[in-house]
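Supplementary Text 2. Reproducibility record for the structural model of the 101-residue chain.

All settings were left at their defaults, and a single model was retained for analysis rather than an ensemble. We include the record here because the model underlies the residue-level annotations in Supplementary Table 4.
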Amino acid sequence: MHYSRTWGWFALRLRDGGTIRLSALLTGLPSFAQALLGNVEPTIIGEDAVELLRRTAEGNPPSVWYSRKSFLSIYLPAITLAIGSGIVIPVIPVFARSFDV
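Retained model, structure tokens:
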């Protein structure tokens, strides 16, 4: 098991190779974290997830709204493309007229 900071979920790898992803926004996550920590060997849980599970079990789940990694991988490219589109769209008709279209 590990926690993906980019996507804001806990990912559980099953024995058959499947994956279950649990969002940090789930309301029952503290109860799940308590049950997981009480019934699963800590060595099976990824080192990065153990501390997050402990905090989640105490009622302090990880924040999914902002992280540096999510900003750089999701929000910055989206903002860049939006600004680029806003600059290019008004110019397209003028550019097309230059070709007598």
